[in-house]
Write a structure and sequence with these properties.
single chain; 233 residues; alpha/beta; Rossmann fold; seven-stranded mixed β-sheet; 9 helices; S-adenosyl-L-methionine; S-adenosylmethionine-dependent methyltransferase activity; transferase
């Protein structure tokens, strides 16, 4: 008699189910030892556990690779985990500029990136991102091919405006954490992070230089989503 097929129990709790599905697809992601070490160093240093998940990091790497990115800009380094995924997409002559407000976060990130062998490709700039972006614009910096925005949501609209000034036609921009567990649909929501996302959406709606969409996501990081933008000619 044939054996009954093994059936993996499906958790009734949505968060647990989403995390289990992430785990199932983990073999496609193949986080390398440097990625694991980067996450562990950040945790040991007491950094907040708000970095992208491994599958999200892999998505960033794939997107940067698909656009052939040679120059990448990241707004919000944290412990360097997403930075590492993006650096893995770069050619040997590529470069990545990552902006981080907190000096401790920057120090942790630099150590991990150096250990991972990509320290020479990455410049971590410490200071308020608006100031750092303004300095890049003032210096007439060569446009970036791919931009990842994962910083304070209150200033998203300003970050996007400055990112557009540092872009070229065809630049891809990803903005993380824009669904906020669905709170973005509430125009009166008291959370200023939600209002920051809504201001960004208002900016992007019918913007002449951008085409955009937003994808909702679930997984080990809960219910959220990201905006994907392409800069137009």
């Amino acid at each position: 008699m044939a054996q009954a097929p093994h059936v993996q129990p499906v958790p009734s709790d949505p968060d647990a189910r989403w995390a289990q599905v992430d785990s199932y697809f983990g073999g496609l992601v193949r986080e390398d030892p440097d990625g694991t070490a980067t996450r562990e160093r950040a945790a040991e240093a007491g950094l907040p556990d708000i970095a992208v998940a491994p599958n999200q990091g892999k998505l960033l790497q794939l997107l940067a690779s698909l656009v052939g990115a040679r120059r990448v800009l990241e707004i919000g380094t944290l412990g360097g985990y997403s930075t590492l995924w993006l650096a893995r997409a770069l050619p040997s002559d590529g470069s990545l500029v990552s902006l981080e407000l907190d000096p401790k976060h920057a120090e942790v990130a630099r150590a991990s990136l150096t250990q991972a062998g990509v320290g020479d490709l990455v410049e971590v700039v410490v200071g308020p991102a608006v100031d750092s972006l303004g300095a890049l614009v003032a210096a007439a910096t060569e446009p970036f091919d791919f931009i990842f925005i994962d910083a304070d949501k209150q200033q998203l609209a300003r970050y996007v405006e400055l990112s557009l000034a540092l872009s070229r036609p065809g630049t891809a921009i990803v903005v993380d954490n824009v669904v906020r567990d669905g709170a973005v649909i509430d125009p009166e929501h008291p959370d200023d992070r939600v209002q920051g996302v809504r201001r960004m959406v208002e900016l992007l709606t019918d913007h002449p230089r951008v085409e955009a969409t937003v994808l909702q996501t679930v997984g080990s990081k809960g219910y959220d989503g990201f905006a994907l933008l392409r800069v137009l000619p």
